[in-house]
Amino acid sequence: MQYRQLGASDLKVSEIALGSWLTYGAGVETxxxxxxxxxxxxxxxxxxxxxxxxxxxxxxTFLGQALKxxxxxxxxxxxxxxxxxxxxxxxxxxxxxxxxxxxxxxxLQTDYVDLYQCHRYDNGTPLxxxxxxxxxxxxxxxxxxxxxxEWPAAKIRAVQKMAGVTRFVSxxxxxxxxxxxxxxxxxxxxxxxxxxxxxxxxxxxxxxxGKYKPGQPPxxxxxxxxxxxGGFFPNEYLKPKAIAAIxxxxxxxxxxxxxxxxxxxxxxxxxxxxxxxxxGATKPEQVADNAAAxxxxxxxxxxxxxxxxxxxxxxx
Length: 316
Description:
By secondary structure, the chain is of the alpha/beta class. It has one domain (3-207, 270-296): Alpha-Beta Barrel (TIM Barrel), CATH 3.20.20.100. It is built from eleven helices and ten strands. The strands form two sheets. An eight-stranded parallel beta sheet has the order 3-10-9-8-7-6-5-4, with helices on one face. The protein has a two-stranded antiparallel sheet with strand order 1-2. β8 (168-171), α6 and β9 form a beta-alpha-beta unit. The chain is globular. The model has no long low-confidence stretch (mean pLDDT 91).
């Protein structure tokens, strides 16, 4: 495993992080989820990402149990808030931030998280209120650093102009071979301002692993077929043109000795501003295969071949 600095923080995070969206505490049985966490640590993964909304607290509760006997200083723990936890609990108001951090810590069975993230931007709360509350959470020792996920670039810039507030050190955008939106504005700005990227869905919810084959129905055990985990599946990537283009990555990966998943992960990690790529795994073998992408590089000719193969689905 290789490790990178997370923005301007003092956190050293593994290039591959273990996430828990739609999986732990929800779509994956406890025994299998526990085995995935164990394999992650065996592979050198030290970065665990979750959120209060995942399973409405169930993912945090599972992780609290799974991690309770592991030395707290040996791993980096991140969680988030914003989405509705009840009819009256949502957003990034001061009251919600102070309430939700305590509830998350209780479920996670820890005194602090290393990274507390705003899961989305809250248009209903003044930005200064949000930032002052997050600053107080850090001052209280309940979070060491703060970050955001999928915020508009203008709001990120606005925070940088504020005085007397804790600075963001991380951004969590969706980013993959098939989703490149952050490259235009968010990535360059963050790189200049000490904000590292923790990218989610780097495998496009499994599409980039090559498990979906041309002319064949999705595998029965895949996310696309899962009732508990398939609600946000990007079905546009299962269209014949997309599947054919993704299948074109198979010989490129084989040619440089990587699995298709490792190719996709190494591609997002090619950027120095990307501190870590979050994976979601249902089996320990998936964790091990994904973790092996750390430290891998893709030669220039393979990068060019990737662009050529994906041309039909990347073209506007």
